[in-house]
Design a protein that fits this description.
Elements: H1 4-21, E1 26-27, E2 32-33, H2 34-39, E3 48-52, E4 57-60, E5 69-73, E6 79-86, E7 89-93, E8 99-103, E9 107-108, E10 112-115, E11 124-127, E12 136-140, E13 145-152, E14 155-160, E15 163-168, E16 172-173, E17 180-181
Antiparallel strand pairs: 1-2, 3-6, 3-9, 4-5, 6-7, 7-8, 10-13, 10-16, 11-12, 13-14, 13-17, 14-15
Length: 182
């Protein structure tokens, strides 16, 4: 599902809240609506991609510490999709489609992506420009983790351990089809 309609809707709602309240609904320190801070939700669009902030992140069956831990992520930077929010908890989905609840402070707005984690035995071309005609500078294995620098809706510029280049957006988990990232 594309992020842009949600972002546009959220920004319109925020502008309306600011106009009605004379600016009181927005806290420049938190960069989110004050109403969102009161109930613990972020006020950001759902769904959206984020990344794991820590090397160890517990994923629970429900949105509080009383719920059992379903599994533990052991690698910071992995992209996950926020599919719901409840107070200070976020329901997330990983690249394998598994879902669970994570405490909000374990997540970062830093955009990352996994290169085609669904591929087996194939590689994905990394190009020197955002075009299918651009020169291939490397071939990336499935599930390579990279930082998303920007996306134009068709290609994303990725930077990772020893590489910097462009990959077709459809070959990434961590960005939506046609999403533009600045």
């Amino acid at each position: 599902m594309p992020l842009r309609p949600f972002l546009t809707h959220s920004l319109s709602a925020l502008a309306l809240a600011l106009a009605v309240s004379g600016g009181a609904a927005f806290s420049p320190l938190s960069a989110r609506p004050a109403a969102a801070a009161e109930d613990g939700t972020s006020g950001l669009p759902v769904p959206r991609f984020v990344s794991l902030k820590a090397d160890k992140v517990n994923v629970r069956n429900g949105p509080n510490r009383d719920h059992d831990v379903s599994w533990v992520f052991n690698r910071s930077g992995l992209p996950v999709e926020v599919t719901a929010e409840y107070e200070t908890w976020r329901r997330i989905r990983d690249a394998d489609g598994a879902e669970g609840w994570v405490y909000h402070s374990m997540l970062s707005l830093r955009r990352t992506a996994l290169v085609a984690p669904w591929l087996k035995g194939e590689t994905v071309p990394l190009r020197d420009a955002a075009s299918t005609d651009a020169r291939v500078v490397a071939r990336l294995e499935p599930s390579v983790l990279a930082v998303v620098k920007n996306c134009d809706g068709k290609f994303c510029r990725l930077v990772g351990d020893g590489f910097d280049g462009y990959v077709q957006q459809s070959q990434l988990f961590g960005v939506y089809p046609n999403e533009k990232v600045d």
